Amino acid sequence: MDVATWAVEMLATARVARLATADRAGQPLVVPVCYAFVDGRIYSAVDAKPKRTRELRRLRDIADNPRVSLVVDVWDEDWARLAWVLVEGTAGILTTDLERTPALAALVAKYPQYAAMDLLSTAGPVIAITPARVVAWRAAG
Amino acid sequence: MDVATWAVEMLATARVARLATADRAGQPLVVPVCYAFVDGRIYSAVDAKPKRTRELRRLRDIADNPRVSLVVDVWDEDWARLAWVLVEGTAGILTTDLERTPALAALVAKYPQYAAMDLLSTAGPVIAITPARVVAWRAAG
User: Fold this and answer.
1) Which ipTM was obtained for this model?
2) Are B88 and A31 in contact (CB < 8 Å)?
3) For residue A129, what is the enclosing H or E element?
4) What is the rounded CA–CA span in Å between residue B109 and residue B125?
């Protein structure tokens, strides 16, 4: 995939992304997520931040329909600074420790908050996104 | 709908939202959007910010499948300050000036940037979202 350097850098460093899934009936869902971008894949964990349940809709959606979209963007009141990177791809849930452990380690390395909450022991399912298409845009051109 | 006051306030004042649509095949799309929340509905315009085309995918998606999801959230490195408001609903395109004009006026009132680019004369299609369900969460409880 031919992706601009600034866009790869933004994917690697942005602190929050928004993940969109859709259920079988085509109802989209969008949620803010912490994530790590490692070796071309995007990982996001169901962490111990308070939630109603770990049986999250995003997981049901992915089980029913693996197509997802994720965006990282820069908001600024100066619209000449706006930028976004949009990833479309396929999501799956990592089931083996062989896959989970390095993904969780990348999340802990990126977010000191995860180290503090001992993500490695407390994480629920880990979502892995394989990008099929990346579109990047910035006002600055 | 029973929505917490802080969540309504956040919907009214947040500067950027992320809008998820899905096409007929269930492929989600998520994009950052400027929006105005007026009388219980959410409006977003295809504005004159540079884009490849105004025949945007979000518009095709909505024509094919009116179900959308929109989130406004607060990101903070202190995760005790995280919050989000998620809206699920039905989107349509406003076609008459009777509907477009007040929606565009609300966008111009919220964003001085739109006044500067003369949104009223330059806007393309205006998306209107009617919420069916609002879910709000914040770490602070």
Assistant:
1) 0.94
2) no
3) strand A126-138
4) 18
- Write down the pTM of the prediction: 0.95
The whole-angstrom distance between B69's CA and the closest CA on chain A is 5
Distance of CA A46 to the CA centre of its chain: 11
- Domains contained in chain A, number: 1
**B109 CA to chain A: closest CA distance, Å?**
14
**pLDDT of res. B122:** 85
User: CA angle at residue A30 from A72 to A100, to 5 degrees?
Assistant: 75
The enclosing domain of B90 has a CATH number of: 2.30.110.10
Nearest to B19 by CA among B87, B119, B105, B109: B87
**The one-letter amino acid at A65:** N
| Nearest CB to A49; choose among B16, B24, B139 | B139
Q: Kindly report, residue by residue over A73-116, the tens digit of the pLDDT.
A: 999 999 999 999 999 999 999 989 999 999 999 999 999 999 99
HEC secondary structure over chain B: CCCCHHHHHHHHHCCCEEEEEECCCCCEEEEEECCEEECCEEEEECCCCCCCCCCCHHHHHHHHCCEEEEEEEECCCCHHHCEEEEEEEEEEEECCHHHHHHHHHHHHHHCHHHHHCCHHHHCCCEEEEEEEEEEEEECCC
pLDDT digits (tens, 9 = 90+) for B55-73: 689 999 999 999 999 999 9
Q: Which candidate, A56, A86, A67, places its Cα nearest to that of A26?
A: A67
Domain of residue A17, residue span:
5-138
